[in-house]
Amino acid sequence: MHQFRTRKTFRDFLYSPVAIALLVTLAFFLVRIVWGSFVGYREAARARVVAEARALELETEKTRASVRAATAGSARAAEEEIREKLHMALPGEEVIVITDEEDFSRDEILADEETLLWQRFVDWVINR
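Structure for Cell division protein FtsL, as requested:
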């Protein structure tokens, strides 16, 4: 009989508000720990993707730097440096400037061409 009374007392304690509050509190903290681990894992995965992309960029830059270092003494490398940094060109080379259509209207372009044609005609008559 004593054994049944002990079971009933234990069961009464489990269903008491104090025990339920303890279990809810324990469940809350466990959920919080699991959620924190999940968030940490997700941030670590994102950081890993960023680090891998950065490592790939650095590897590409290393390859470019080694190619530049290998060709640093050549004439072609010197020519590239002059073209890129000083914006110079070889004699006889031409530069083509491409502009947006919004910069000039068609009427302005035609007016410039007509003026140019008219100027050419006047120059031809005078120099003849």
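Residues 97-128 form one domain.
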